[in-house]
Amino acid sequence: MTAGFFQALSNVFSTLGAAVFVPVMLFIIAKFMGVNNKKAFTSALLCAVGLTGFNLVIGSYSGVISPVVSQMVENAGVNLPVLDTGWQSTSVIAYSTQIGLIFIGVAIFLQIALFFVKWTNVFMASDLWNNYSFMVWGSMLYVLTKNIWLSLALMIVQNLYILLFSEVAAKRWSTYYQYPNCCMTAPHHLESLPFAVLMNVLLGKLGFDKIKLNAEELQKKFGIMGEPMFIGLVIGALIAIIGYYNTLGELATWGVVTSSAISTAAVMAVFPKVAGIFASAFTTLTDAYKKKAAASGQGREWYLSVNDAVGYGEPNTLVTGILLIPIMLLIAFILPGNKILPMLDLVALPYMVEVFVAVSHGNIAKSIVTGGIWFSLGMLICSNLAPTFTEVAVNAGFEMSQAGVYIISFGIMCHPLIAGLFYAFWSQNIFVISAVVVLYFVLYFLFRKYRVQIVDFLERNNQDSQKLPA
């Protein structure tokens, strides 16, 4: 009976996706805030249209740029036995595992309960879809230990850490991406927050704040040539030229180059307009929140979790992610000990750098260096975990095309900190696991005590960096 319920829940999640979940949660929250039916429904519809628009643009762009990336890999002639099959297939695998199905029910209860008892000010349940990231790690631990309770404990502890990180970064993310009272809680992105903050300070001391490499400054200095659309045109063309450098004398190649260039430029131009539609969905909610706070004389500052797609097309985020495509491929080719070939998730790099971009307030130079280092460490982890992930995938019904080849998701698994929690539980050492749990509570209560100072530090650090001379 229970198994059937969770299977049905999994089918609903897999079928409807984030473009339905987030609007429904937004409608429910709007009603709780006293918004009338018409305005609540309009907000939910705008949210659904915005999310669908994001997915349409990203899907179309992936269809153009993925063959170019494949050609770059083919020309390099490398033999890396771990293939990146993308976050899409990983999510399907996660929702097909027994332990994953069980965690769905746990996650719904946990995330809603923690919000309503005010353990956290982030309503994470509005982005239930991204729980598949926890489910993958729990499924791998179950394959290795056959211990369902240990696997559930791992996913719960990972969830607690991510909730804490999301609350620390909530104002910074909301301010930078300009979505009032919204934040991003995707586990595979938020886990990099401590490293992002550390690198932002370190690179600032090394002079990176003086490097005015962001969309706004480029536009000021270079006019139309510094506009995001023109930058996209150039970057798209360069990636295709690198991929097809050995056939540049053929007309068909230049068809690919121009298609890649114009498609990248189109993404740069269209995404902000779609983002505007999505942002307008939260205007009614923000107004209702302000009225409620004013009426009561005080208000709880809380944040609604939204899908990470909403930040994908921000100019600095998109430029950083696209520039990292050839960089991460090159690193994959030369990094000692690496066995993974990033492929399908390379187009997801703009998702993956959102934390770095937000923390550095759009400093592309900082974001590229930080992302390059973090994802390189992640590739070594992926190389080690690929056999286990492949076993989980096969058990879930994924068919392997050939023996001796492993699969993994570069975008979901290439993350050192959340992998560190996995290794702690895999050790099955009570002292190591206890240390990880105790560390969470120490960090949690420190944040509760110094919340204002920590949040102000993230904001002030960015304001100070923007005052430096170019």
Overview of the molecule:
The structure is a single chain. By secondary structure, the protein is mostly helical. The chain is 73% helix and 4% strand. Helix 2 (18-32) runs antiparallel to helix 3 (37-76). The radius of gyration is 22 Å and the shape is globular. The protein has helices at residues 2-16, 18-32, 37-76, 86-94, 98-116, 132-145, 148-177, 187-190, 193-205, 215-222, 228-243, 251-280, 283-296, 315-334, 349-352, 354-359, 364-395, 410-413, 416-426, 430-466, and strands at residues 82-84, 122-123, 182-184, 303-306, 340-341, 406-408.
The main pleated sheet reads as: 3 strands, parallel
Question: Can you give the helix content as a percent range?
Answer: over 70%
- The N- to C-terminal Cα distance equals 64 Å
User: Looking at the structure, what is the overall shape?
Assistant: globular
Protein name: PTS galactitol transporter subunit IIC
Task: Considering the chains and any ligands shown, give keywords for the structure.
470 residues; mainly alpha; three-stranded parallel β-sheet; 20 helices; PTS galactitol transporter subunit IIC
Q: Can you summarize this structure?
A:
It comes from Anoxybacterium hadale. This protein has 470 residues and is mostly helical.
SSE map:
Layout lengths: L1 H15 L1 H15 L4 H40 L5 E3 L1 H9 L3 H19 L5 E2 L8 H14 L2 H30 L4 E3 L2 H4 L2 H13 L9 H8 L5 H16 L7 H30 L2 H14 L6 E4 L8 H20 L5 E2 L7 H4 L1 H6 L4 H32 L10 E3 L1 H4 L2 H11 L3 H37 L4
Parallel strand pairs: 1-5, 1-6, 2-4, 3-4
Helix pairs in contact: 1-5, 2-3, 3-11, 3-12, 4-6, 5-6, 5-7, 6-7, 6-17, 6-19, 7-19, 7-20, 9-17, 11-12, 11-14, 14-17
